[in-house]
Design brief:
This protein is 18% helix and 36% strand. With 181 residues, it is α+β, with helices and mostly antiparallel strands. The strands form 2 sheets. It has a 5-stranded mixed beta sheet with strand order 3-1-9-5-7, with no helix packed on it. Strands 2-4-8-6 form a 4-stranded antiparallel beta sheet, with no helix packed on it. It starts with 6 loop residues before the first helix and ends in an 11-residue tail after the last strand.
Length: 181
């Protein structure tokens, strides 16, 4: 190479670029968490709850709204059976979501939850959830998927409304399902 960088220098720079891009991919999750916390958006749920049953606060009511969306390219029907529930903090509650695979191929999906307002996410405890596992549906199959949850009694008193949202992702390419015989 007469005009430009020598081949060894070019290869070294390209390898450094590849390593930096790989490292950036790992840094996206912590960056996302920091941005969500800074802007108060898309709070993650507190995760699976294994704590003891709480005493129910009958004097307080909280509206929990449910949302279901599909990521780009996901073709399943996906929805809650009701738009919302009014719950008492400390009580065990349940909501059913419907999923149907309208294609002629088996598919694998993963639901990712989020809670808003984000500061309330620490007070939302799932005791059972379809989001803990990947969902495999055969062609035309329809399933009812449950989420069981408790809104913690320690939820700040100024929070009267929560939104639990799920985004459904097609992960068939990474986790191919086995077709039913």
């Amino acid at each position: 190479m007469s005009d430009g960088l020598p081949t060894k220098t070019l290869v070294t720079r390209l390898l450094i670029l590849v390593v930096l891009m790989f490292a950036f991919g790992f840094a996206l999750v912590p960056i996302y968490d920091v941005m969500c916390k800074a802007f108060g958006i898309n709070g993650k749920t507190a995760g699976q709850y294994s704590g003891a049953q709480q005493q129910v606060d009958d004097s307080r009511r909280v509206k929990v709204q449910f949302m279901a969306t599909n990521s780009a390219g996901m073709v399943w029907e996906f929805r809650p059976v009701a738009a919302d529930l009014v719950v008492n903090p400390g009580a065990v509650n349940e909501m059913t979501f419907i999923a149907q695979n309208p294609t002629d191929q088996p598919m694998t999906a993963q639901a990712i939850p989020s809670i808003s307002p984000s500061e309330a996410a620490a007070y939302f405890h799932k005791t059972a959830c379809f989001c803990f596992n990947q969902q495999v549906l055969q062609p035309g199959e329809r399933v009812e998927m449950k989420v069981r949850f408790i809104v913690d009694r320690e939820l700040p008193k100024d929070v009267y409304h929560l939104t639990l949202g799920y985004t459904l992702f097609d992960i068939t390419a990474r986790h191919p399902p086995v077709a039913a015989n």
